[in-house]
Design goal:
The complex is a heterodimer of chains A (about 325) and B (about 90). Chain A contains 5 helices and 16 strands. Chain A is α+β, with helices and mostly antiparallel strands. In chain A, strands 7-6-5-2-1-9 form a 6-stranded antiparallel sheet, with no helix packed on it. Chain B is mainly alpha-helical and about 90 residues long. The chains are: A alpha+beta (about 325), B mainly alpha (about 90). At the A-B interface, helix 1 and helix 4 of A face helix 1, helix 2 and helix 3 of B.
Chain lengths: ~325, ~90
């Protein structure tokens, strides 16, 4: 009986010893995991703070732009244009011009840029012209017969579009550069039809500011495909000119004009836009294309011509997000 | 009497050892529960480390490259003030 009692004591002691060893091992594992958790929490907290800071910067930049829009509303000439520096293309439509004339003040940042425009006239019923012109110009790169005017970087221009009505109807385009000199002048004869005034200006009287060839995040565009379509060029504005309905069907028609900036810089996304797109909770980008984790930042974070600023180019967003032709 | 004392010693030893084993078992259960909790939290935060580091660097670069107020904003405001001063001077 004593032997049984001693054996029981020994068994319990050994079992206790094994449990003790297991507990020590588990506690070490627990400590390691705790350290890993602390590390992850600190890393994510740091990123969270940086993302919040990036968002605050973007909000502040937007607020600055709104303030400038208020100041710019009083501007009537190219010389008075306030935004004469910076790395964004800025255009403002001057609302003081007569109805047959439109004026656009344009600032282009450092780098090589061209103002490109195209004019197309289609005769027919409103539905016919609408479908013909809707197809025309969906993709800037597919438009034939464009006119290209080289621009000097960090310069303010004024673009005047004048519609002449009557028997010799025409649209004249004039680009005024430094010293109020005409950099470009051209005229496009239209069908001998009566016209209504210029209409359908997009974002009329508003300032439009964008980085050259800026990739819009999916939050702005409906899809990434939409975002990429506009990437190779920077659309400035589109407007139409309606023919008045005359005595016969053939007197109806519509003219469409498109203006955009073609820049040497590659399609890109601003650094602050990429930074603020990070969704801290999911660990993903909310609207911007998915970052390729293995991409070296210094290879895709490139300087934009002469401006001293850096942008993320398409390489940063991986093969799956390559742009179109 | 001698038997009773021995029996008591053995019994006490057995109880003590059992209690120790029980405490160790409880310790294991507690640590295991903690490990499950920490692992769950790690999995919740388990964003790709390289990705997080990469984006941290992006944020650092972006913040460094976007001083506030923006230089172009300051330049535009200065130009606006200069224009306003000139206009007032001309008016006088």
């Amino acid at each position: 009986m004593w032997l049984i009692a001693i054996a029981a004591c020994m068994a319990v002691a050994v079992y206790g010893f094994i449990l003790s060893g297991q507990a020590v091992r588990l506690e070490r594992e627990h400590d390691t995991l705790q350290a890993e958790l602390r590390d992850k929490q600190q890393r994510n907290q740091r990123l969270g703070e940086l993302v919040a800071q990036a968002r605050a910067i973007q909000v502040q930049q937007s607020s600055e732009m709104n303030e400038l829009i208020q100041l710019q509303k009083r501007i009537t000439t190219r010389d008075q244009f306030l935004l004469t520096s910076g790395d964004k293309i800025i255009r403002q439509l001057a609302v003081y011009a007569p109805s047959s004339e439109r004026r656009m003040i344009l600032y282009v940042p450092a780098g090589n840029h061209s103002l490109v425009y195209a004019i197309k006239e289609v005769l027919g019923t409103p539905s016919e012209t609408y479908s013909a012109l809707a197809e025309w110009g969906n993709d800037h790169r597919q438009i034939q017969g464009t006119t290209e005017i080289p621009l000097v970087g960090e310069t303010v221009y004024e673009l005047r579009t004048v519609v002449k009505k009557g028997m010799d109807s025409s649209i004249s385009i004039q680009l005024i550069g430094p010293g109020d000199k005409a950099v470009h002048e051209d005229s496009f004869p239209l069908s001998r039809l009566a016209f209504q005034g210029l209409n359908n200006w997009q974002n009329d009287s508003e300032i439009f500011a964008t980085y050259p060839n800026e990739i819009r995040s999916a939050g702005d565009a409906k899809t990434h495909v939409d975002a990429k379509k506009s990437a190779p060029v920077t659309p400035l504005l589109t407007f139409t000119l309606d023919h008045l309905g005359g005595k016969d069907q053939n007197s109806e028609g519509r003219v469409k004009m498109r203006f955009w900036i073609d820049s040497d810089s590659p399609p890109c996304m601003s650094d602050i836009s990429v930074a603020e797109s990070y969704d801290f909770l999911s660990g993903n980008l909310r609207h911007a294309p998915q970052l390729t984790k293995s991409q070296a930042i210094d290879k895709t974070f490139q300087p934009y011509d002469g401006s001293g600023r850096y942008y993320f180019t398409d390489g940063y967003f991986g093969e799956s997000n390559r742009f179109g032709p | 009497m001698k038997f009773t004392i021995r029996a008591l010693i053995v019994l006490t030893l057995l109880v003590a050892l059992s209690a120790r084993a029980f405490l160790q078992w409880q310790r294991i259960v507690r640590v295991k529960a903690d490990i499950v909790s920490v692992t769950t939290e790690i999995n919740r935060l388990n964003f790709d480390a390289e990705y997080v580091d990469s984006h941290t660097k992006v944020c650092e670069l972006a913040i460094a490259n976007n001083p506030l107020p923006s230089p172009y904003f300051l330049a535009a405001k200065q130009r606006h003030e200069e224009t306003a001063v000139t206009s007032q001077g001309n008016a006088k």
